[in-house]
Each structure stands twice: as C-alpha cells, then as structure tokens.
Amino acid sequence: MANDGLMQNFLPFNRSNEPSTTGIPSVSVDMWAVVRANNTTPKQFNCPSTTDVPDPAQDTTAYYDFQFDTPNPGYSQYLSYAYQYQHDPNRRIIGPASEPTFPFMADANPYIKGQVTDTPLNDRKSAARGNSKNHTNREGQNVLFVDGHVTFEKGPDVGLSGRFQSGLTVSKGRDNIYTFHAGGLNQPVDPGVAAPTATSANPGSTSDAVLVP
Questions:
Q1: Radius of gyration of the chain (CA)
Q2: What distance, in Å, lies between the first and last C-alpha atoms of the chain?
Q3: Sign of CA dihedral 185, 188, 189, 193
Q4: What Å distances lie between residue 201 and 90, 139, 195, 209, 210, CA to CA?
Q5: By CB count within 10 A, which of 10, 42, 107, 122 is most buried?
Q6: Is the pLDDT of residue 69 over 80?
C-alpha cells in the first residue's frame, strides 16, 4: 500500500518483472491481474467509442501490467478504462461490505488519459462537466458500481452522496469520480477540485472515489 496516495501508472516498464509488494504500485496492475488469470481478454478493456486497441500480448500470463506505449505519463492506447484506486491508506478495500452504489470502474479519467488541462472546478462548470473523453463531445461516461449495475452518466458526480464544506458554505452533492477532495476527513464527498496525476491520487476518505488512469 502506498503512502500519501503515491502511484505510478503502467509500470514496470519491463512488464515481465513481477511488481514489488512494498514499492509504489501501478494501478493498472490490478486490472491486468484479471487478464493474467484468464478471466477476461485484453480486448475487454477497450472502449468501442475510442481508437484504443487490444494489448498485443500473446501470452498474458507472461506479464503483470498493460503495455506502456508512449512517453506521456498515464497514457496507454491499450487501456480505455479507469479503476478505483486501491493503494491508499484512506481507501477501504472493495469487498462484500462495500456500499452497493460505490463506483469502482468507468471510462478513462479525463485529467490523466484525456489530457484535459483545465482545472477540475472550471471544467465541471463547462458544458462537458469534466466527463471522460472516451465518448464523442464528452457527453458522458459509463460507470460500473460495486453491485454490478452499469449506468451512463452525463456528469461525473455519481455514487455516494453527502456534503462538503468550503469555508462557511455547506452543500449537498455526490462524489466526483475523477477527482479527490483535499479538505480532510470532514468532507464525506469530493465536489471536484483536485485532479489526480500519473503519480498521485490521494482519496480523502473511504467515500471518496478516485478512478484512474
């Protein structure tokens, strides 16, 4: 488990090396583990609305991560989806006790793979509302929840509801699945302020969903 939300996407660069259990983990290793166990194929991790292609691995058991295809951190044309970050001290591991409406997989995070450069708060005020870039004109994203149901959401504020505090203003809302809150544990949900990067995603509480990359 990483300290302070540190992570690294698409590592090791030599993906035939087994990842360390004590170093900074690659979140995409979690998804490749399903492929490695022959429970699915690399093609299932490609969104049909993108130009992404299946990972070229012939023997999936020989690798531990998706292939890293470009120097741009956090990007891979072989992986279209974002996964709930599991390697943070504040993150309760997903399991039978998890809230059924907790989101744990969706289209790729726009601030990592989508190369969106505006701040999350400003972006959410625009017509696109910080949506994934997987779909035409960023009209929304598919979100998979812990209980197995999938919905197409036209905004990134989904999942658990609660309130967040900003100064003296208290507002109700839902968590933003592509960002994390930086206001401490008194914020049950993230209103969409701090964007993760290819090296950091630090959930503020167990209800703060951060889907990467």
A1: 16
A2: 17
A3: negative
A4: 11, 24, 8, 10, 7
A5: 107
A6: no
